[in-house]
Design a protein that fits this description.
mainly beta, two-stranded antiparallel sheet, 7 strands, globular
């Protein structure tokens, strides 16, 4: 399935595809499709997530992990950037096992 693109004023926004790009963006609610590894659970549906460009926090709902062994799992997260104060994280809408 192709990733959905967010629409901003009628113009599709290409999703960011790396943690480095997400951290440099600083744009709240910007679409993200990143593939990497869930390093560990850091509590309350928060996970450390890493790809080839860096590491950051991701919020993943428990029900989205129903068929995934969490730590060490290679996954694709589809969602958006969530910025609260100085914390930037990926708010995952969907999680899929990566090939």
């Amino acid at each position: 399935a192709a990733p959905a693109f967010a629409i901003d004023g009628g113009t599709p926004r290409q999703p960011l595809t790396s943690i480095d790009a997400v951290l440099k963006s600083g744009v709240d609610d910007y679409p993200v499709v990143v593939t990497g590894t869930i390093v560990k659970n850091i509590g309350d549906e928060k996970y450390e997530f890493r790809d080839d460009t860096g590491t950051m926090q991701a919020e993943i709902d428990k029900e989205d992990l129903y068929n995934i062994t969490v730590e060490g799992a290679r996954v694709t997260l589809t969602g958006e950037i969530d910025i609260e104060g100085k914390i930037i994280e990926i708010d995952a809408d969907t999680v899929a096992k990566a090939e």
